[in-house]
Amino acid sequence: xxxxxxxxxxxxxxxxxxxxxxxxxxxxxxxxxxxxxxxxxxxxxxxxxxxxxxxxxxxxxxxxxxxxxxxxxxxxxxxxxxxxxxxxxxxxxxxxxxxxxxxxxxxxxxxxxxxxxxxxxxxxxxxxxxxxxxxxxxxxxxxxxxxxxxxxxxxxxxxxxxxxxxxxxxxxxxxxxxxxxxxxxxxxxxxxxxxxxxxxxxxxxxxxxxxxxxxx
Length: 216
What we know:
Number of helices: 9
Number of domains: 1
GO molecular function: heme binding; iron ion binding; monooxygenase activity; oxidoreductase activity, acting on paired donors, with incorporation or reduction of molecular oxygen
Distance between the termini: 30 Å
Radius of gyration: 17 Å
């Protein structure tokens, strides 16, 4: 998958692969994603309350911050998968070229990507999975940091969810600092800024009164 997505390519290949992701995102209304995220977050909070776990803090990232954005984007992108969050999270952990999770993590990531692709190994399929993978940890971290700082905008200004990343330049993978530009800039600027902010903002608004339920 890394060999087929825009993030780890440049030149004509990057432009062609990025176009797939941009076209998918252009079909998604951030306001509609926010409404779905609100409903999904409410459902998760109801399940937590019904389980009687309110007496002990619940892990924010695994209980809400990862699964809600992944579920919302998965539905919007028509990715049918009963185990979507676990598979996307497994792929996300191995997404960076220098990940050191070991052979078991690599095998889990490969199996997750195979399941998400469902036999479609096209660049369009890779772009769809890439959107889910890149949204998984980054949007979760934006929700967490938004709760820490009181709002998503404050988090983007003072504590960006991804302070640094990696890009491909002239065929080499290079580190890129993102402070001051939390969604990047130039040809590799994240095309999903409006979507991520819409999802994370409504989640922070709903979680803020219940922040004491969670550890993060």
